[in-house]
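Hello forum,

I keep getting stuck at the same step: I have a sequence, I want structure tokens, and every attempt I make locally crashes halfway through. Rather than fight my setup again tonight, could one of you with a working pipeline run this one for me? It's a single chain of 162 residues.
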Amino acid sequence: MIRVGIGYDLHRLVRGRPFILAGIRLQAKRGELAYSDGDVLAHAVCDALLGASALGDIGSLFPPSDERWKDADSMRMLASVYDLVRERGWNLVNLDCIVNCEEPRILDYRDEIRANLARVLRTEADRIFVKGKTGEGVGKVGKGRAVQVWATCLLDNPEKEA
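Reply #2:
Ran it on my machine without issues. Output:
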């Protein structure tokens, strides 16, 4: 059986916070405002994996009302999500992501981002791709006040029949 999942996340950008994607601090004037560390890419990937495996969403597993998740490392959250997905027999076939922000340039960090996601998801980097887009000056993203990410994954489970 195969399943597709889609994840989405958006965070405002503010001064005084680090800009983190896939656990990597990128050089930027502003960082994500969030209850956790704000890693918008890790959050979107969590939701894609959870959606494909029908195991919930990031908010139900890591509610912001729970003090344990204050400033939490989102890559540890992603590792926990993937452990849950794997326990149910699902395997990652591929992951495709779009990061929409004005700065930093994602291309400058793409290989490192892909490698870090692959490490946490215990797979090869060639199963993961990350594209950077800009808001072309339109909306909150285009004005540099927000970052958003879409993530799509394909999972298979050889133990389940379609």
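The first helix runs from residue 40 to 52. If your local run keeps crashing, start a new thread with the error log.
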